[in-house]
Specification:
The protein is an alpha/beta fold. 48% of the residues lie in helices and 15% in strands. It is built from eight helices and seven strands, in the order βαβαβαβαβαβαααβ. A seven-stranded parallel beta sheet has the order 3-2-1-4-5-6-7, with helices on both faces. α2 links the parallel β2 and β3. α1 packs across α8, α3 runs parallel beside α4 and α4 packs parallel to α5. The radius of gyration is 17 Å and the shape is globular. The two termini are 34 Å apart.
Length: 254
């Protein structure tokens, strides 16, 4: 462990499990004070207990990124508790996979709302603190699905949209000492990919095996792999890296 993020406050959406929890763990281990929001109250409570048992400072609140007021209130309380907001990681997400002819309006809209609207809401709320401080790091969670993926027209579109949002905010906010970048994970072993296996009716181990067979490095990803990339973008020394998307997928992506 290092003190790379000592004195910094990191705010992570969807931080109670999977990639979000892995990112929160990374920041906490490297000295940051961590704030997380999620709609999963049970997972949120368990994560708080786990972090506190490790001696980490953590703020947690049940909030839905789709609700602007809930996001703004959570940030206000986090800033009141920790004194600033230096790093935002937009990680909250859902999947509602289906082929186009089976996809419902609700399937489409919910994915758009959480991934795109949620990231917009959080970024807009966070930037005012960062602009005042003349410093900030915003990292959005995209996906290799942004390049297109069967059965994910909603998810792929939302994740591609996040890349456009990333590059635009990088242009707008750079002059304030704020960088905006995105991490695009490939296959990562999380609760979400376990849910995917259940949805398509295959054992999770088989899904992992099938995925690994297409990954050049010969293994699946873990939340820590994404956390390492997020930490790179969040580092003070990455101030000249702005508006970029890094694919963390064990191999090249187009």
């Amino acid at each position: 462990m290092t003190d790379r993020f000592a004195g910094r406050v990191a705010f992570i959406t969807g931080g109670s499990r999977g990639i979000g929890k892995g990112v929160a763990q990374k920041f906490a281990e490297e000295g940051a004070k961590v704030a997380i929001i999620d709609i999963n109250e049970e997972a949120l409570s368990e994560t708080v207990k786990e972090f506190e048992s490790q001696g980490f400072e953590i703020f947690a609140k049940t909030a839905n990124v789709v609700d602007t007021n809930e996001v703004e209130t959570a940030m206000e309380e986090a800033v009141a508790a920790f004194g600033s907001l230096d790093i935002l990681v937009n990680n909250a997400g859902v999947i509602r996979d289906n082929l186009l002819f089976k996809m419902t309006d609700s399937d489409w809209q919910q994915v758009m709302d959480v991934h795109l609207n949620g990231s917009f809401n959080a970024a807009r709320a966070a930037q005012k603190y960062m602009v005042d401080n003349k410093y900030g790091r915003i990292i959005n969670t995209s996906s290799t699905s942004a390049l297109g993926n069967r059965g994910q027209s909603n998810y792929a579109t939302a994740k591609a949209g996040l890349q456009g949002l990333t590059k635009t905010l990088a242009i707008e906010l750079g002059k304030f000492g704020i960088t905006v970048n995105a991490v695009a994970p490939g296959f990562i072993e999380t609760e979400m990919t376990k849910e995917t296996a259940a949805r398509i009716g295959v054992p999770f181990e088989e899904l992992v095996k099938a995925s690994v067979s297409t990954i050049p490095v010969g293994r699946s990803g873990k939340p820590a792999d994404i956390a390492n990339a997020v930490a790179f973008f969040a580092d003070e020394e990455s101030s000249f890296v702005n508006g970029q998307v890094i694919y963390v997928a064990g191999g090249p992506k187009d």
